[in-house]
Amino acid sequence: MASEAVPERSGRAAEVAHGLRAYGLIVRMWIRSTLAYRTSFVLMALGNFAASALDFVAIVLMFSQIDALGGFTLPEVAFLYGTATLSLGLADLLLGSMDRLGSRVRDGTLDTLLLRPVPVFAQVAADRFALRRLGRIGQALLVLGWSVTRLDVDWTAGRVLLAVVTALSGAAIFAAVFTAGAAFQFWAQDAAEVQNSFTYGGTTMLQYPPTVFAKDLVRGVTFLVPLAFVNWLPALRLMGRPDPLGLPGWADFLGPAVAALMCAGAGLAWRHGLRAYRSTGS
Amino acid sequence: MWYTAVAAGSFRRYATYRIATAAGVFTNTVFGFVIAYTYLALWAERPHLGGYDRAQALTFVWTAQALLAASALLFGGGLDELQTRIRSGDIAVDLYRPADLQLWWLAADLGRAGFQLIGRGVAPMAVGALFFPLDLPADPATWLLFLLSVALGVVVSFALRYLVSLASFWLLDGAGLALIAGLACMFFSGMVLPLRAFPGSLGEVAQLLPWAAILQVPTDVLIGARSGASLLRGLAFQAAWGVALLALGRLVQAAATRKVVVQGG
Questions:
Q1: Is residue A282 part of a domain?
Q2: What is the pTM of this model?
Q3: Does residue B264 lie within any of the structural domains?
Q4: Which of A10, B1, B176, B192 has its CA 20 to 30 Å from the CA of residue A107?
Q5: Is the pLDDT of residue A211 over 50?
Q6: How many domains does chain A contain in total?
Q7: Which residues pair with A69 in a beta bridge?
């Protein structure tokens, strides 16, 4: 029976552990089903790799005509590209299927998820878990690795730690955006594309140096939708570049704090959306 | 003719997806801003890259965003429904209807494109014109020629997507092919970078491929990079690819309906 899957009400920690365990089980199920068709999986992963690489091809094509873009060299832009894409790729792998929530609301299949003794968030997040999204992560790591060998940066332990923490907190920031976007779909079911502006559109922006964009736009992604903390601020520090807004130095280390705040906010939005959900039809 | 009714019905159908349209406009606009600034930086380093000045390059960005949905530059555009019908076997019902399969879907696609040109195209272009110095033509004749060129581009785009969908008669899972076709379209249409700004012979070859008819030629008409004889050559180029690809589609369709047994048949 499912009794062992129901959490003992011993508090939040047990609930979270239960949710994570359920997430892991559903993910494992999808991975098993994906790997049943190995050729198809390899092809789709390669496709994911190529789709992600297209953005970098655009950058390489640009640099075939110029030496610097906004005062940044190709390895520097590649570093920005790699960090932004890696963070997006990680969040996309873990939560990327959440944009299907709108269609689940529309066709009523969300109700099935509400009946199961597993947190809805874990079910929606793990729904159709797409292992092929490793393609984007692999592509990002390749570009990142190449840029690191070309950059003139002294990789001390502190700098390596900052880079790793940046990638993870950047992924958490994008995860919050995916969650908030899904929560928004409880109300606007057809609006799945809006979150693409912040995830894919935001990543495209972060792949280029901030000097390229108008100050107001940079202010917007620093203070309004704080995507600048995904990679811009820490990456500029690592490359020894000043940030165009002239923020105090400690702002470069705010990534984890911003990520925590955004995740908390997205969590609240999700709870609110789920509670307000009144199913489909009359 | 009933194909007009199909086109009108398709137009109305897409007009009912109001929230999705608004969401798409928002996303096109955000991408327009981001890409416009990267092009500004590129053209600051290399003024007159590809023969475009700054205003022309910016207009290219916003035209691409305005045509993204209408010309199906990411290769969606509703033909995945045809693919689903082929896979499920519902296509058998379509085939014994007294209407031509290709013309039916072409009519539906033109109706869709007509709505998306208005619903998804006008607003991003207007926002772009508000915030950036665009190079938009003043005389209505150029706009009409632009619309004609866009229509030809949609036909080429349809013909390519139709071919990809028909492959589902032979492939069990068309997802891989659709993905590759979509990537090719993004790259060779000029969506990633205007084809004229491609380095060397890559740019010359890319401008001969069918994808150039979808975005590059219409945009060149709009920003005045093609006029006179060059404009006529552009339109002829689009029409030639349209006719050739539609003819190829008919051949494949004939082979598919003659030799292939639909699922479960």
A1: no
A2: 0.91
A3: no
A4: B176
A5: yes
A6: 1
A7: A72
